[in-house]
What does this fold into?
Amino acid sequence: MNTIKRIDPRRPFVITAAGLKRITLGEAGSADGSLDASAAAASLHGRAAAKPRRTVEPAQRTILVAAHSDRGALDEHARETVAAAALMADAKTQVALMVFGELKEDAAALGADKVIELAAFDRRAFAPESEVQALAACAAQFAPVHILLPDNAAGDGDLGRRYAAQAGASVAAHVVEIDAAHVSVYVHAKKAVAKRTVPEVVLLAPGAVDSRLPFVGAGEAMQMGSFDTAASAAARYRDLGIEETDASQVALEEADFIVSAGNGVTDIAAFEALAGVLGAAIGASRVAVDNGHFTRDKQVGATGKTVQASVYIAFGISGAVQHLQGIKDCRHVIAVNLDASAPIAKRADLTIVGDTRETIASLTEAIARARAAHGEASRAAGAPTVVEGVAA
Ligand SMILES: Cc1cc2nc3c(=O)[nH]c(=O)nc-3n(C[C@H](O)[C@H](O)[C@H](O)COP(=O)(O)OP(=O)(O)OC[C@H]3O[C@@H](n4cnc5c(N)ncnc54)[C@H](O)[C@@H]3O)c2cc1C
It folds into this structure.
């Protein structure tokens, strides 16, 4: 799956609450002021801002969105797909979100009015037939006007195609533009765009929709019957599971967890050891690279890599605008810095005001302790780890 975000010169737009918007590198927030600046800033950094409900009218129609979660969260592509449904929906249309796996996030903030969490499913397990069965059951319950899925290689794209084939539904894949009236896809090697009315099943390409919404959904949880997640483990194929890759082998652009070092990191060996213990990929600021501590391919920022990790820990990085440009798509940013007023603190969801050397040592020790405790009492798995000796 290629998740690297690039500006496509042939498609310099994205669908937002205000309609089509031109993309400018590094720009944040909506054009045209449809999203007020503080709400945009708050949503950018995941902070809650009071937003109105999209609609309070009784629902007469449904747009169904189905997506797999990963460790209780939807990735950006799935969020964009929910946002697409919410932007397409009129006042009498509800957005129902069906999640394969656990969902610990606020579904209302994602734009969903109903949420069906199928916690028994796991994106790491291959269960296509039971997933299609679950999606068909949900579709039978809601009779949705459209079903939207992220067109990814992590299960959703496959599920949408299987469902459409089984249901004999009309389908559009790799959809790069969508509104209530039409969808567009590239044709002729991206030299042209083909449009049609919105089909029953829409498989949305990444980056087509701005997931930051100026409103919230109702976010009501719904129960569905249980599904036999092993139903598909028929004799026809065998799930060999997922092979773990060493984080250091993962390209920075694809890494989900990155620890990054700046000029404030002096003990490089301890930093690298922490990355190994955490199973995180290593990034660096330009100064740390210029100092010869890391190779150029580790540089994150305007003249380095643009990364989109779920967690990015910036050790001793000031947060210069060129560096921030490289981490604008990261979900959670944690900063470790002696200076609470460093620019990185404005971008960070959590700032640890402290020395990098001490914090790295405390973290490494706390992880070792947690691992030992986990080994002794594996039933404690999943319990939160308290990191001591770190001032938050
Ligand atoms: C054209 C151009 C392109 C650029 N491209 C990039 C790019 O792609 N990527 C990039 O990163 N930069 C880039 N830069 C450089 C950028 O402007 C900054 O100079 C650079 O990001 C600063 O790196 P830094 O934060 O590691 O270092 P510094 O600015 O020196 O900041 C170090 C930080 O560490 C903190 N600190 C110091 N000691 C400790 C300690 N013991 N414990 C905890 N915290 C500590 C300090 O408070 C400070 O905030 C570019 C610049 C230009 C002009």
Summary: The chain has a mean pLDDT of 85.
